[in-house]
Amino acid sequence: MTPRDASDANSNRWSDLDRPPLNGAALRKGLVRDGGHGGLYCDIEVVQRTGSTNADLMALALAGNAEEGAVLVAEEQTSGRGRLDRQWTAPARSGLFFSVLLEPSDVPVARWGWLPLLTGVAVATGLSRSAGVDTALKWPNDLLVTVGGEERKAGGILAERAGDDAVIVGVGINVTLREDELPVPQAASLALAGAVTTDRDPLLRAVLRSLEHWYDKWRAAGGDPVASGLQETYAAGCSTLGRVVRAELPGDRSITGEAVAIDGDGRLVLATEDGVQEPVGAGDIVHLRPA
């Protein structure tokens, strides 16, 4: 993956002084492993505009042109996707939109389902430290912040298999979006949540370092969510637990119950009125009552 910086390609990069471009060279200097030794990241590429960083990195990976630790960042995504094929759009340079290629070959494939939750923990902890914003995770991987006493979504994660040996995790975070720029009223940004900084360079560095930290711990434990501390940390930061929720499942099914646990497979366990505890591995979760 050959670096191509948005800052080099865009002659009008300072057209919005509140939203300066990312510095690809500085990001690589600070995060990319030296001489192929130590660290997760092998390359960080910043592009001005693309449809989807996940789709682009997927194509590179499947063609054998990207290796583990490749990071693709876009200043603007025109066809960004969230879970359930939802669109994710935002003004140029208003957020962090990036994808990372991971190849956890030493972890059983059955445990790879923890990767989107791991990424959620990494994003939440990284942003809490760097932006000074209280964050929470809505199962499985929405990032929530509080604006005016109301929980609202400021980011999301999408994990996709890339062949048999790799997973691409994509992250989208609203950083400087103003109220009149939000795609839906339930959305938010770090700025609206009172972030102490909206400088995207240190925010991205903090998130990528946090991702490397949690990925290394998880791999060292063979993907065991208990031994790595991942299951406990995710549950502690999950705002879905303790609430009455409705799980909207594939096939037009739904289940309503109290979210009582995250099980060993990363599934959300619902206690229904029938006295049954039912794990949910996929679906859309609607919070019906505050915890």
UniProtKB/TrEMBL annotation:
PROSITE patterns the UniProt entry points to: BPL_LPL_CATALYTIC
Keywords noted in UniProt: ATP-binding, Biotin, Ligase, Nucleotide-binding
Name of the top EC class for this enzyme: ligase
NCBIfam families: birA_ligase
Name of the protein described by the UniProt record: biotin--[biotin carboxyl-carrier protein] ligase
InterPro entries in the record: aa-tRNA-synth_II/BPL/LPL, Biotin_CoA_COase_ligase, BPL_C, BPL_LPL_catalytic, Transcriptional_repressor_C
Alphabetized GO MF terms: biotin--[biotin carboxyl-carrier protein] ligase activity
Domain BPL/LPL catalytic, residue spans: 45-219
Enzyme Commission number, as recorded: 6.3.4.15
Pfam name, any one: BPL_LplA_LipB
Entry superkingdom: Bacteria
Phylogenetic classification of the source organism: Bacteria, Bacillati, Actinomycetota, Actinomycetes, Kitasatosporales
